[in-house]
Amino acid sequence: MLTQNGCDQLREDFKEILLAENAPGGMVIFHNSDCAEVRDLDLSAIETDSLNERLDVLVKGLPSYGWRKRDGVVNVEPRGIKVELLETQVAYFAYKTSSNLDSVADSLIHTAEVRQVVANSNLLDGLYFGGLQSPPSKKPGTEVVLHNKSVRQILNDIVQRRKRGLWVYSEQIFDHRRTFTL
To answer: Could you tell me the pTM of the whole model?
Structure first.
């Protein structure tokens, strides 16, 4: 069972790899899933500068997880699991590239399409603990308008435009209900 600490370790290792490579990323974590234990990974011992090889080492001991690039963003997620909320199509979403990322994530989670999926899936909103992380841009912001994109594509777009950063979607069972955080 991937423990809360194991999930935290996986996220931190992934974040460290992304920072070293100055690459944007996204991650899906199921805290109550059956998967291999996360082991302490000494990233400094990896003898390669290849992002692909470093990511292969990250998921090697986690057969239920895999990685791939989507829209220029590295995504790490459980294999074979479709996350309905992340696949939800949003007809219209706009944000400013200079906006606080917590407010952008909050706006995304409160779109009509996402609220509908949350209600139909009996998901309980979790707290947003900065699951969308990216250092602030020093450039003046521009407005981005996206049409008919999935939540995952929107999250990838946000970190891709900043050329760095990490979004994290997490689900766990809390008080007998599925809870999600972003």
So the answer is: 0.83
